[in-house]
Amino acid sequence: MSTHAHRSRIPHVPTARPRRSKAVAGALAAACALLLAATGCAATASTASTAAAEPAAPAAAHTSAAPRPAAPAVPEPAALAGAKVNVGEGATVGVGMPISVTFPRPVPRAERAAVEHWLGVDARPAVTGAWSWVKDRNLLDGQRVDYRPPAYWKPGTRVTLRVGSHAVRHFSIGRSLTATVDVRTHTMTVTEDGRPDTRIPVTAGRPGLDTWNGTMVVMDKQPRVYMDSRTVGLGDAYHGYYAWAVHTTTSGTYVHQNPAANTHAGRANVTHGCVGLATDGTAERFYRRVIPGDVIRVTGSKDTVEPGNGYGDWNLTWSEWLAHSATRHGGDGR
């Protein structure tokens, strides 16, 4: 299920785990097809309706009549006309969700500063944030730029994104929820609004197919996803539908229901890279509790997930984040 950006892994099946990689199903299937070739817990199809996926694949930013601030002095880059945004209009997301804007073609380095100037973020209360160019696992360099503050968003923040003269998006930050997986103790601790309130037994990636270490963000979730190890070169290790799948990396890492967790959760790591939860209602309860943008942290594992493998942005320090900005500085989101 989970896969390193530089190798394919697939956590999650009842037994051993290939390198992580499972493509998302349903609405995300096309985007995930590229991922499956290089990951572990591969998700290739789903019986869930597209309405069940949360959220669907990024859509082109839509227009709005909201007022715009004065235009930057530099000419507006043509690339903004075809830009897509990862957060839907009116959405409520978790505190870890970056704003991610992708382009149909790579933006030349000479135009990237202008793109940043024309991407306006207005946050209430105001935050200091910055754009940074991220090498997406499935895209070319220059096709993705993300915005985040130095630390997670404050719950209740209302954000407006302006994509040049073309579109505007409004969204809100919900409550704060972080789920911390300790692969050494085989447990996941859920903390909401600063208070740890749930400790869940889990089974993570077995040795050699370790679950990604570091900070990930819930990309989307689906009640039922088809995962096939053959898509990542793992033979017939596993293939079938898995329920209550919370998607955390484009390489195929999920937190999901896994029958193997009924025996091994809290005791041993036996998956192909995903985080497995028991079938006694544990997986469904976690699924229903989380929303896109919630934070999943894995500790005690090995390789740290790359920034462009899903929303791994928080694995960079603030100075590292600014180093990948064309304007090299943060600004007030207000």
TrEMBL record:
Family matches, as InterPro entries: Big_10 (IPR041280), LD-transpeptidase (IPR050979), LD_TPept_cat_dom (IPR005490), Transpep_catalytic_dom (IPR038063)
CDD domains: YkuD_like
Region annotation (Disordered) ranges: 1-20
Active site: H256 (proton donor/acceptor), C274 (nucleophile)
PROSITE patterns: LD_TPASE
Keywords: Acyltransferase, Cell shape, Cell wall biogenesis/degradation, Peptidoglycan synthesis, Signal, Transferase
Signal peptide from the UniProt entry: 1-42
Annotated L,D-TPase catalytic domain residues: 177-299
Pathway membership: Cell wall biogenesis; peptidoglycan biosynthesis
Keyword Ubl conjugation found: no
Pfam family, one: YkuD
Amino-acid biosynthesis in keyword set: no
Basic residues composition-biased segments: 1-10
Protein name: L,D-transpeptidase
Biological source species: Streptomyces lavenduligriseus
